[in-house]
Amino acid sequence: MSFLDQNQKSPSMKKWRPSWSELWLNNKTTPLKPVVFNIQLPNTKDPKNNTSNKTLISNFSGSDRTLSLNDDILLRILSKLPVSQRNANSLVCKRWLNLQGRLVRSLKVLDWDFIESGRLISRFPNLSNVDLINGCFVSSRDSAVILSHKLVSLHVDSCFSSFYDGKLLLHTNIVDRGLTALASGCPNLRRLVVIGSSELGLLSVAEECPTLQELELHKCSDNVLRGIAACENLQILKLVGNMEGFYSSLVSDIGLTILAQGCKRLVKLELSSCEGSFDGIKAIGQCCQMLEELTFSDHRMDDGWLAALSYCENLKTLRFVSCKRIDPSPGPDEYLGCCPALERLHLQKCQLRDKKSVRAMFRVCEAVREIVFQDCWGLDNDVFSFASVCRRVNFLSLEGCSLVTTDGLESVILSWTELQDLRVVSCKNIKVGEASPALSTLFSILIELKWSPDTKYLLASSLAGTGMGKRGGKFFKKS
């Protein structure tokens, strides 16, 4: 047996080099040693360490402090958080997702399958305000063409021709089936917006949701109003009969009479594109004695209906919106009557060229205390002079009435001894420099005054001395 030369080194006797971990652990920097040792977990294959593993896992699971709270307490805590955090809170876990769903009260449905599949009820069991307008349309998801309307925006394909063909609206049976499912799962429903339903669908809502107080119904007809009449606690109602280029239906005196006999607790009523006459409005005034606010939007009423407003004894607010006419043949003044409790008369985007109808309207509303005109066509000095019959007016607002002049305004408001607030905006023929001393004295005793009638005059006065706005003048000069 021979020995190797001392100068030769055996491979097994090579100098051992320490690893990076040993260099790190042997370092004298003691502050990092506890960190390294703390992150080392025990060997899971060693049966002796099973107890320590269970203890470690239980410590990590115990980090969710909300597990010790029951659903009611956690629900009260989540309800105190801002609404903007609801989406983020629902992503924490499934429990928080379900609890956040119980906090949602208002929802706009975009997909009708969400109702029929039962996911709506299981996800949001405490809904009180549901809008089904967008969900009642059949939208082509594959199309890049978007059709926008003031009610809805949806995708349409190249075969689309018009709304009147009925292809974009769900069938009435499908809508009724969804309303039945919604009513059975949300008995606390208070507000509902729907289009294209029938009498049966609304009857199911009336039976299952006794707390329903507000209803907005599009594409309404006389037969559908039979289902609305079963909503005994209904207080706010909006009926939309026709919408040009969108859909068409009929609401006549028959439907208004059915409505009046069934919904006797109405407080607010809006009739949009509805037909009718004296008899229908009279029935509403006699039966709905709690009615305080009545709105006519683009109405199709027959001649002589205006006299029926006198039967609304407790009416406080009367609105006309986008009406092409008021009442072309109102009849003699002795048959018009008056609304004794009326306080507010608002006209927005209406055509007031017919002097006979406007005069009759002010006769019926002579007890009014607040008059608002906004962007009304045909309102000149002669038409506006009929408002002088309203002696108790304390608030007047004129906006976008370009035909009324300073003399026409002065002739009316100087006769109102109780006028306190005046608002004149964007009325180009009312000039600041044309105000008489009597009108200036009235301005000084008003409680509130907003006076910006001629925007061009205000712009010219603000640009005075700047050189801008002069025809043919040079604004940029060489320095």
Keywords:
479 residues; alpha/beta; Monooxygenase; Leucine-rich repeat, LRR (right-handed beta-alpha superhelix); 13-stranded parallel beta sheet; two-stranded antiparallel sheet; 18 helices; 17 strands; 15% strand; globular; LRR_dom_sf
Protein described:
Pfam families: F-box. One of its GO terms (cellular component) is SCF ubiquitin ligase complex. Residues 67-99 form the F-box domain. This protein is an alpha/beta fold and 479 residues long. Among the domains are: 69-103, Up-down Bundle (Monooxygenase), CATH 1.20.1280; 105-250, Leucine-rich repeat, LRR (right-handed beta-alpha superhelix) (Alpha-Beta Horseshoe), CATH 3.80.10. The protein is built from 18 helices and 17 strands. The protein has helices spanning 20-25, 33-38, 50-61, 71-79, 86-89, 94-103, 113-116, 119-123, 172-185, 199-208, 224-228, 253-262, 278-287, 355-364, 381-384, 406-413, 437-445, 455-462, and strands at residues 106-108, 129-131, 145-148, 153-156, 191-195, 214-218, 236-240, 268-272, 275-276, 293-297, 300-301, 317-321, 344-348, 370-374, 395-399, 421-425, 448-452. The strands form three sheets. It has a 13-stranded parallel β-sheet with strand order 1-2-5-6-7-8-10-12-13-14-15-16-17, with no helix packed on it. Helix 4 (71-79) crosses helix 6 and helix 12 (253-262) packs parallel to helix 13 (278-287). It is globular and about 100 Å long. Mean pLDDT is 80; it is low at 1-14, 32-41 and 472-479.
